[in-house]
Each structure stands twice: as C-alpha cells, then as structure tokens.
Design brief:
By secondary structure, this protein is an alpha/beta fold. It contains 19 helices and 15 strands. Helices cover 41% and strands 14% of the residues. The strands form five sheets. It has a five-stranded mixed β-sheet. The longest helix is centred in the C-terminal third of the chain and has 24 residues.
Length: 501
C-alpha cells in the first residue's frame, strides 16, 4: 500500500509539471560553456520490454462487475450527516457518503465522482439517510433490528458505537458475505486483522471509502524553527533510518526547553517546552511502542497483554521520561502555534487548525521504544474512526457487499487520492518530507479491542493513571483489576461466539 500511495502522489506531482518538450538527444555543455550534442543510444529490444502495469482498482472493479446489472436498485445508507461527528474539524460542509453535485471542493468532488462511477457500473442509485447524530444512529440500528426491518442497506457510524451494536446482535458478519473480499487492498487491512475474532467473525469494516480512519491517527507535529534555533536536525532522517526512538525524542524535547520569563518553572503558555499533549498522555504512547492492551490470541479469542514483560518495560520508560524527568506537559495546539512547544502529540484530524500557524511545522510518526522494535505504531482512536456495519435484517447482504466493494474500490483513485495526495500533500502539509512520513503513518495503524470501546474503561485508567497520578503503580494496579478485566474479556468473547451470523 505504501508503494501504491507514493506512486499516486508522484503521479499528481508529475501531471502538475509543465511539459518541457521531447527530444531524441541530450544537450550538455562543454568545458568552454558551449552546448554540445550527445547522441542517445537506442535501447535494445530486451531493454525496451517493461513489466505490465498493475491494473488499477477502478479497472479491477469494472472487470469484476462487467456483467453485473442491479436494475436501478436504490442503495440506501444510514450515515453521519454533513458536518456531523468530527467532520467540521477537517473541513466544513463534508461527509463521507454523498455529494449532491460538483462544487470544486476536493473531498466533495471526489465523493461525487466515486459515486457516479459506482452507479454507472452497477446500475444503481446511491441515497443517504442522514441520522440525527452518531448516538442516534447506534440506537436507530438497534431499535429497527428489534422491530425486524430496516429501510437501509448499510450504516456508517463511529467504530466504537458499532461495537455496541455488535454485542447487541444487530450486525451481520462481514466475513460471511462472499461479495466482500477483505483481502482486496482497498479495505483497511489493519482493521480486518485487528477485529476478526475466531478467524471468521468481523462486524464492521473500513477502507478507502472512509477518511476518518486516517484522520484518527495519533501523530507528532514539530516546530521546525525550534529545531533550527537549537541546532537540531529535523527528525525525518531518523524516522527513515529506523532510529526514531523515545530516547531521541526525549533528548530533543529537553534541548528545546527555555525558561523565558525566568521564574524557574516551565509552563507551555509562558516558556518553551519540549512536548505537549491535551489528554490520554500515556495511552497513545503504548501503541507507538508496539504494545496493545488486548489482542487476538492464537485460538482466535481475545487475550490481554497488560502483564507482558515488554509492556511493563514500556510503561517504566514512559514514567521515567514523562513524569520523573518532566518531558511532557498538558496543553493544546494554541501553545504549539504560538511557538512555545517543540513536539505536539495529537491526532492528524485537527491539522486544518494549523493552516495559519506562523512557524513552519512538520509531521512525523510517534517514536518507537527502541531500535529493536521493527515497525512504528500509530494509535487510532476507535471513537474518531468511522466504519460500515450491515444490519442483521438486511434482505440481500450479497448485493450490499457488491455495492460496498465497488464504492470502496472506486474510492482508491478518487477519495483516497483527494485525501492523501491533494488535501494532505498540498493544502495542509507543508513539505514533501511530511508527505513521505504520512506513508509510514498510514501503514503503521494500530487498533485495539480495548480502551475506546465501552468495555475498555479499565485499560484507559491503567495507562493514563501513571501520568495523571504521578505514580508508577501500573503493575500493582493491573494485578488488582485483572480479575475484572478477564471477566469483561470473557463476556465480550462469549457474546461474539454466540452470534450465529
């Protein structure tokens, strides 16, 4: 996927370049500055042979459904309304489902073109049914399933709220719908792998037809001016080399600190500090370090990882730098925009609020625990992420699967390109290096059955407590609540195991 996204970005750049002309020869200058003509060697027949280009997602979808005609069917989707949920923090006037007409706005036009391609290919009409709010959508799904009928084919909502619908028995198993191949690259592989239980049960899905699974990624924004003022290189090289770790982060954060008013106490509002977050300080970092609260075990059930040695080592490290050595302060983007913070940890979604920032900034992944950690990890908020669920009362899930598959496939070259290569690459992100960082961020997503779901309160308390209470009692507190946690996990696993669809 990284190579595919990079290729898409390069294609946008190349099409924007002026045409310089073509020639069968190259012009260089001789030692006196005059032009000299260099003859270009014609490649051999073997050299001219090129590997055939991979078919695009659109081409694959068109071929897959070349003989499919759904007879003008009106596909209805219950969805978060325009400017609902967190949409307004990205751009006003958008949603992820429907666009009435082309209006010149990047996301709107991408959705319009995607839907048009889907409608033409399958002979359908796409019709949204706007829910009043994300909470009302959750309730509406449940009540209508209980009543035995729904007037929509699929529902788009917050992923954590779909978790409640799953436990209530409101949703169909995506894995049982043969027309959705979750291995197709336009679906979010991380969601599929993280939330498929027993190897066969998955109750929501997201992919290129969504934008909030990307906006929900926890990232680090850094102030370039503060780097330069303190003689520090930008972290891009370390990220690419795999040496971007918590120790390197800590060194840079402490180097940037300045007591501007001389009162002996560092405050983000008055001084310069190294690192700020607004909330959930420790929780985000656990995932950056490759750790999870809960994971899918070898038997397909859920297991807790709270008492594993590496996770405890990660907690100890975070307590040492965040609390004991005061690396971390609580503040929001206001102090970052004012030039008082080197590193701001937050989700990618609010990036639009930095457009008028005076200082140049960059975007990087959160650092690893150590260089032995193979991959970066980007915490994804289950509450920000949107996903699709199919109500249990759906009368033709195979047809719905076809439609969702086509919408998602066509999104790869429309909505995905608009989001990734244009919106981030030109409108918000200010340099090519940060766009390259987004490649790494988007393939490093980490989802978890714990923390953000309704059953995960204990996990959040355990993680964030070491910063909020300024005590590293993670091990003892974990031992106290393990019985309760295991009971909650067992209840969740059993509720999914009992689902017959």
């Amino acid at each position: 996927m990284k190579k595919r996204l990079t290729a898409l970005f390069l294609s946008v750049l190349l099409t924007a370049l002026p045409v310089l002309g073509c020639s069968n020869s190259q012009v260089n200058t001789d030692e006196n500055g005059g032009a000299q003509q260099n003859e270009v060697q014609t490649p051999s027949a073997e050299e001219q042979e090129e590997e055939p280009a991979e078919p695009t997602a659109s081409a694959l979808i068109k071929e897959r459904y070349a003989d499919t005609d759904l007879g003008g069917y009106v596909y209805k989707v219950l969805a978060i309304p325009t400017d609902g949920h967190f949409y307004t923090q990205v751009a006003s006037g958008i949603n992820e489902v429907y666009a009435e007409e082309l209006n010149g706005e990047i996301i709107n036009d991408a959705i319009f073109n995607r839907n048009l391609s889907t409608e033409d290919t399958l002979n359908i009409k796409i019709e949204p049914i706007w829910g009043a709010s994300v909470d009302s959508i959750r309730t509406q799904i449940h009540n209508e399933v209980l009543a035995g009928s729904t007037e929509y084919d699929a529902a788009l909502n917050r992923m954590d709220f779909l978790g409640t619908n799953m436990q209530n028995g409101d949703l169909l198993n995506i894995k049982s719908i043969s027309t959705i191949n979750t291995d197709d690259y336009w679906w979010d592989r991380n969601i599929v792998d993280s939330f498929t239980m027993f190897g066969t049960k998955l109750y929501w899905i997201s992919g290129d037809l969504n934008i909030f699974d990307d906006f929900a990624a926890e990232v680090i924004f850094f102030n370039k001016q503060l780097c330069s003022d303190n003689g520090m290189e930008y972290p891009y090289g370390m990220v690419l080399e795999g040496t971007w770790t918590i120790d390197r982060f800590f060194e840079m954060a402490k180097t940037a600190e300045q007591d501007l008013n001389g009162d002996g106490v560092l405050k983000p509002k008055d001084d310069v500090v190294g690192h700020c977050e607004e909330n959930d300080h420790v929780k985000h970092w656990m995932y950056a370090m490759g750790e999870k609260a809960m994971d899918i075990g070898p038997d397909g059930e859920l297991v807790t990882r709270l008492q594993e040695e590496r996770q405890i080592r990660a907690v100890d490290k975070l307590y040492s730098v965040m609390v004991e050595q005061q690396m971390t302060y609580t503040a929001n983007s206001t102090e970052f925009k004012a030039g008082h913070v080197l590193f701001l940890g937050t989700m990618l979604g609010p990036i639009g609020g930095l457009r008028d920032m005076e200082y140049e900034f960059g975007v990087i992944p959160m650092p690893k625990l150590d260089e032995e950690q193979e991959n970066y990890g980007e915490y994804i908020s289950n509450g920000w992420t949107t996903a699709y669920g199919i109500p249990m009362t759906n009368q033709d899930p195979e047809r719905t699967g076809i439609i969702l598959d086509a919408i998602c496939g066509f999104s790869n070259e429309t909505l995905r390109v608009a989001l990734y290569d244009v919106l981030f690459g030109a409108k918000y992100v200010r340099d090519a290096e940060s766009v390259e960082m987004l490649d790494i961020i988007f393939v490093s997503k980490m989802y978890d059955w714990a923390v953000d779901f309704t059953w995960g309160g204990s996990f959040q308390t355990l993680y964030n407590g070491i910063y909020e209470n300024k005590q590293n009692n993670f091990v003892s507190q974990t031992q106290k609540v393990m019985k309760l946690i295991n009971k909650a996990i067992e209840k969740l696993v059993n509720s999914v195991a009992e689902l017959e669809y």
